[in-house]
Amino acid sequence: MSKGTAPLYSKIEKALKDWILEEKYKSGELLPTEEELARMFNASRTTVRNALSNLEKAGYLWRKQGKGSIVKDIKLSQDLNYLSSLTESLEQRGVAVTTGMLSITKTTPPQKVREEMGIGAEQKVYWLQRTRIADGIPIAYVNNYIMAGIVPNLEQKTKLLEVHGLYSVLEEQYNIQIDSCVETIHTYISGPMEMEILQLDKPVALFLSKRVTRTADGKIFEYVTSVIRGDMHSYTVFLRDRQKDNS
Fold first, then answer.
1. Tens digit of pLDDT for each residue in 166-178?
2. Residue 76: in which H helix or E strand, if any?
3. Structural domain of residue 44, as residue ranges?
4. Are 92 and 178 contained in the same domain?
5. Measured distance between the N- and C-terminal CA atoms of the chain, rounded to whole angstroms
6. How many whole angstroms separate alpha carbon 138 and alpha carbon 128?
7. What CATH code is carried by the domain that includes residue 12?
8. Predicted model pTM
9. Pairing status of strand 220-229 against strand 205-215
10. Among candidate residues 103, 112, 114, the one with its CA nearest the CA of residue 154
Protein backbone atom coordinates (compact mmCIF):
# COMPACT_ATOMS: atom_id res chain seq x y z
CA MET A 1 0.00 0.00 0.00
CA SER A 2 1.52 3.34 -1.06
CA LYS A 3 1.97 6.16 1.42
CA GLY A 4 -1.22 8.18 1.88
CA THR A 5 -3.49 5.47 0.43
CA ALA A 6 -6.36 4.44 2.71
CA PRO A 7 -6.61 0.71 3.49
CA LEU A 8 -9.27 -1.20 1.56
CA TYR A 9 -11.44 -1.86 4.63
CA SER A 10 -11.58 1.92 5.22
CA LYS A 11 -12.72 2.53 1.64
CA ILE A 12 -15.41 -0.15 1.99
CA GLU A 13 -16.51 1.36 5.32
CA LYS A 14 -16.85 4.82 3.75
CA ALA A 15 -18.79 3.48 0.76
CA LEU A 16 -21.24 1.59 2.98
CA LYS A 17 -21.67 4.60 5.27
CA ASP A 18 -22.47 6.78 2.25
CA TRP A 19 -25.06 4.23 1.08
CA ILE A 20 -26.72 4.33 4.51
CA LEU A 21 -26.69 8.14 4.79
CA GLU A 22 -28.03 8.47 1.24
CA GLU A 23 -30.71 5.88 2.14
CA LYS A 24 -29.75 3.45 -0.59
CA TYR A 25 -30.28 1.03 2.28
CA LYS A 26 -32.92 2.26 4.72
CA SER A 27 -33.49 1.58 8.41
CA GLY A 28 -34.29 -2.08 9.05
CA GLU A 29 -33.00 -3.27 5.68
CA LEU A 30 -30.25 -5.83 5.23
CA LEU A 31 -26.96 -4.91 3.63
CA PRO A 32 -25.54 -7.37 1.09
CA THR A 33 -23.89 -10.40 2.69
CA GLU A 34 -20.18 -10.49 3.46
CA GLU A 35 -19.68 -12.75 0.46
CA GLU A 36 -21.58 -10.38 -1.84
CA LEU A 37 -19.69 -7.34 -0.54
CA ALA A 38 -16.38 -9.16 -0.99
CA ARG A 39 -17.22 -9.70 -4.66
CA MET A 40 -18.46 -6.12 -5.11
CA PHE A 41 -15.27 -4.60 -3.68
CA ASN A 42 -12.87 -7.30 -4.84
CA ALA A 43 -11.83 -7.86 -1.24
CA SER A 44 -11.49 -10.72 1.22
CA ARG A 45 -14.32 -11.49 3.63
CA THR A 46 -11.96 -10.60 6.50
CA THR A 47 -11.52 -7.10 5.04
CA VAL A 48 -15.28 -6.72 4.61
CA ARG A 49 -15.84 -7.97 8.15
CA ASN A 50 -13.47 -5.30 9.51
CA ALA A 51 -15.42 -2.58 7.68
CA LEU A 52 -18.76 -3.88 8.97
CA SER A 53 -17.40 -4.14 12.51
CA ASN A 54 -16.32 -0.48 12.44
CA LEU A 55 -19.75 0.60 11.17
CA GLU A 56 -21.43 -1.38 13.92
CA LYS A 57 -19.25 0.29 16.57
CA ALA A 58 -20.07 3.69 15.04
CA GLY A 59 -23.81 3.00 15.35
CA TYR A 60 -24.75 2.69 11.68
CA LEU A 61 -25.83 -0.94 11.77
CA TRP A 62 -26.18 -3.99 13.96
CA ARG A 63 -25.17 -7.51 13.07
CA LYS A 64 -27.24 -10.55 13.92
CA GLN A 65 -25.82 -14.03 13.55
CA GLY A 66 -27.68 -16.00 10.94
CA LYS A 67 -29.40 -12.90 9.57
CA GLY A 68 -26.73 -10.40 8.50
CA SER A 69 -26.01 -6.67 8.84
CA ILE A 70 -29.11 -4.56 9.50
CA VAL A 71 -29.19 -0.78 9.03
CA LYS A 72 -30.09 1.16 12.18
CA ASP A 73 -32.47 4.12 12.30
CA ILE A 74 -30.04 7.03 12.30
CA LYS A 75 -32.57 9.68 11.20
CA LEU A 76 -33.68 11.02 14.57
CA SER A 77 -36.69 13.28 15.06
CA GLN A 78 -37.44 15.99 17.62
CA ASP A 79 -41.02 17.01 18.39
CA LEU A 80 -41.30 20.82 18.53
CA ASN A 81 -44.73 20.76 20.16
CA TYR A 82 -43.16 20.20 23.59
CA LEU A 83 -40.32 21.96 25.37
CA SER A 84 -37.55 19.40 25.70
CA SER A 85 -33.82 19.19 25.27
CA LEU A 86 -32.22 17.33 22.37
CA THR A 87 -31.00 14.68 24.81
CA GLU A 88 -34.49 14.09 26.22
CA SER A 89 -35.98 13.81 22.72
CA LEU A 90 -33.41 11.23 21.66
CA GLU A 91 -33.60 9.20 24.86
CA GLN A 92 -37.39 8.99 24.53
CA ARG A 93 -36.78 7.17 21.24
CA GLY A 94 -34.46 4.68 22.90
CA VAL A 95 -31.26 6.27 21.59
CA ALA A 96 -28.15 5.99 23.78
CA VAL A 97 -26.92 9.58 24.24
CA THR A 98 -23.51 10.49 25.63
CA THR A 99 -21.62 13.76 26.02
CA GLY A 100 -18.29 14.78 24.57
CA MET A 101 -16.13 17.91 24.83
CA LEU A 102 -17.82 19.09 28.01
CA SER A 103 -16.55 22.40 29.35
CA ILE A 104 -18.20 24.79 31.81
CA THR A 105 -16.94 28.36 32.17
CA LYS A 106 -18.27 31.23 34.26
CA THR A 107 -17.89 34.28 32.04
CA THR A 108 -19.26 37.52 30.63
CA PRO A 109 -21.21 36.51 27.51
CA PRO A 110 -20.65 38.08 24.06
CA GLN A 111 -22.76 41.10 23.17
CA LYS A 112 -25.06 39.08 20.87
CA VAL A 113 -25.87 36.70 23.73
CA ARG A 114 -26.44 39.59 26.17
CA GLU A 115 -28.90 41.13 23.72
CA GLU A 116 -30.80 37.86 23.34
CA MET A 117 -30.95 37.40 27.13
CA GLY A 118 -31.65 41.06 27.90
CA ILE A 119 -28.74 41.42 30.36
CA GLY A 120 -25.87 43.84 30.88
CA ALA A 121 -22.11 43.34 30.65
CA GLU A 122 -21.84 43.15 34.44
CA GLN A 123 -23.88 39.94 34.62
CA LYS A 124 -22.22 36.53 34.47
CA VAL A 125 -23.38 33.34 32.81
CA TYR A 126 -22.24 29.75 32.78
CA TRP A 127 -21.15 28.81 29.27
CA LEU A 128 -21.46 25.09 28.50
CA GLN A 129 -19.87 23.62 25.37
CA ARG A 130 -20.80 20.05 24.51
CA THR A 131 -21.14 17.57 21.71
CA ARG A 132 -24.06 15.16 21.85
CA ILE A 133 -23.31 11.65 20.64
CA ALA A 134 -26.24 9.46 19.57
CA ASP A 135 -25.58 5.71 19.45
CA GLY A 136 -21.88 6.42 19.02
CA ILE A 137 -22.24 9.08 16.29
CA PRO A 138 -21.55 12.80 17.00
CA ILE A 139 -24.84 14.45 16.02
CA ALA A 140 -24.79 17.93 17.59
CA TYR A 141 -22.58 20.69 18.96
CA VAL A 142 -24.33 22.73 21.66
CA ASN A 143 -23.52 26.04 23.39
CA ASN A 144 -25.66 26.91 26.44
CA TYR A 145 -25.49 30.26 28.24
CA ILE A 146 -27.26 30.11 31.62
CA MET A 147 -27.68 32.91 34.16
CA ALA A 148 -25.03 32.18 36.78
CA GLY A 149 -27.10 33.51 39.66
CA ILE A 150 -29.70 30.73 39.46
CA VAL A 151 -27.25 27.83 39.06
CA PRO A 152 -24.52 28.37 41.68
CA ASN A 153 -21.51 26.06 41.42
CA LEU A 154 -22.75 24.52 38.17
CA GLU A 155 -19.16 23.56 37.35
CA GLN A 156 -19.40 21.00 40.16
CA LYS A 157 -22.18 19.17 38.27
CA THR A 158 -19.94 18.05 35.41
CA LYS A 159 -20.34 14.34 36.16
CA LEU A 160 -24.13 14.65 36.22
CA LEU A 161 -24.15 16.57 32.94
CA GLU A 162 -22.08 13.87 31.27
CA VAL A 163 -24.87 11.33 31.73
CA HIS A 164 -28.09 13.37 32.08
CA GLY A 165 -29.86 16.01 30.00
CA LEU A 166 -29.22 19.61 31.04
CA TYR A 167 -32.88 20.38 31.73
CA SER A 168 -33.20 17.35 34.01
CA VAL A 169 -30.20 18.55 36.01
CA LEU A 170 -31.58 22.10 36.26
CA GLU A 171 -34.98 20.85 37.43
CA GLU A 172 -33.72 18.26 39.89
CA GLN A 173 -30.63 20.01 41.28
CA TYR A 174 -31.80 23.65 41.22
CA ASN A 175 -35.59 23.32 41.27
CA ILE A 176 -35.86 25.49 38.15
CA GLN A 177 -39.31 25.42 36.55
CA ILE A 178 -38.72 25.56 32.81
CA ASP A 179 -41.84 27.00 31.23
CA SER A 180 -41.47 28.21 27.64
CA CYS A 181 -39.07 29.11 24.87
CA VAL A 182 -38.82 30.75 21.48
CA GLU A 183 -36.77 28.70 19.03
CA THR A 184 -35.56 29.76 15.58
CA ILE A 185 -34.13 27.20 13.16
CA HIS A 186 -31.94 27.88 10.14
CA THR A 187 -30.02 25.60 7.79
CA TYR A 188 -26.54 25.85 6.31
CA ILE A 189 -23.74 23.68 4.96
CA SER A 190 -21.00 22.53 7.32
CA GLY A 191 -17.64 24.27 7.18
CA PRO A 192 -14.20 23.09 8.36
CA MET A 193 -14.93 23.77 12.06
CA GLU A 194 -18.20 21.80 12.08
CA MET A 195 -16.66 18.97 10.06
CA GLU A 196 -13.89 18.62 12.65
CA ILE A 197 -16.16 18.82 15.70
CA LEU A 198 -18.78 16.43 14.29
CA GLN A 199 -16.17 14.15 12.68
CA LEU A 200 -17.61 14.54 9.18
CA ASP A 201 -15.71 13.26 6.16
CA LYS A 202 -17.68 15.45 3.73
CA PRO A 203 -19.88 18.58 3.98
CA VAL A 204 -23.50 17.99 5.05
CA ALA A 205 -26.55 20.16 5.68
CA LEU A 206 -26.84 21.34 9.28
CA PHE A 207 -29.63 22.78 11.41
CA LEU A 208 -28.72 25.85 13.46
CA SER A 209 -31.20 26.18 16.32
CA LYS A 210 -31.28 29.32 18.49
CA ARG A 211 -33.40 29.16 21.64
CA VAL A 212 -34.32 31.65 24.37
CA THR A 213 -35.79 29.84 27.38
CA ARG A 214 -37.87 31.24 30.26
CA THR A 215 -38.78 30.07 33.74
CA ALA A 216 -42.34 29.87 35.08
CA ASP A 217 -42.14 33.50 36.28
CA GLY A 218 -41.39 34.67 32.73
CA LYS A 219 -37.70 35.44 33.23
CA ILE A 220 -35.11 34.50 30.62
CA PHE A 221 -32.55 32.15 32.12
CA GLU A 222 -30.93 30.56 29.06
CA TYR A 223 -29.78 31.21 25.51
CA VAL A 224 -28.65 28.18 23.53
CA THR A 225 -27.35 27.52 20.04
CA SER A 226 -27.34 23.98 18.67
CA VAL A 227 -25.67 22.83 15.47
CA ILE A 228 -27.29 19.52 14.48
CA ARG A 229 -26.61 17.16 11.59
CA GLY A 230 -29.40 17.55 9.04
CA ASP A 231 -28.68 14.17 7.48
CA MET A 232 -29.41 12.46 10.81
CA HIS A 233 -32.09 14.63 12.38
CA SER A 234 -35.50 16.07 11.60
CA TYR A 235 -38.12 18.21 13.34
CA THR A 236 -41.82 17.44 13.68
CA VAL A 237 -44.47 20.13 14.24
CA PHE A 238 -48.17 19.48 14.88
CA LEU A 239 -50.40 22.14 13.28
CA ARG A 240 -54.11 22.61 13.90
CA ASP A 241 -56.75 25.16 12.86
CA ARG A 242 -56.37 27.77 10.18
CA GLN A 243 -55.72 31.36 11.19
CA LYS A 244 -58.96 33.27 10.94
CA ASP A 245 -59.12 36.57 9.11
CA ASN A 246 -60.92 38.98 11.42
CA SER A 247 -60.78 41.90 9.01
1. 999 999 999 999 9
2. strand 76-79
3. 8-71
4. yes
5. 74
6. 17
7. 1.10.10.10
8. 0.70
9. antiparallel
10. 103
pLDDT-based confidence at residue 75 (cuts at 50, 70, 90): low
Does residue 94 sit in the same domain as residue 116?
yes
Looking at the DSSP bridge assignments, the partners of residue 78 are 235
Q: Is 12 left (phi over 0), alpha (psi -120 to 50) or beta?
A: alpha
Split into its structural domains, the chain has a count of 2
214/107 same-domain check: yes
Predicted pLDDT at 77: 66
Question: What is the mean pLDDT of the segment spanning 151-164?
Answer: 92
CA-CA distance, 34 to 45, in Å (whole number)? 6
Q: How many CB atoms lie within 10 A of CB 44?
A: 13
Output helix, strand, coil percentages for the chain, rounded to the nearest 5: 30, 35, 35
Length of the chain as a residue count: 247
Residue 48 burial by CB count (10 A; 0-12/13-18/19+): exposed, middle or buried?
Answer: buried
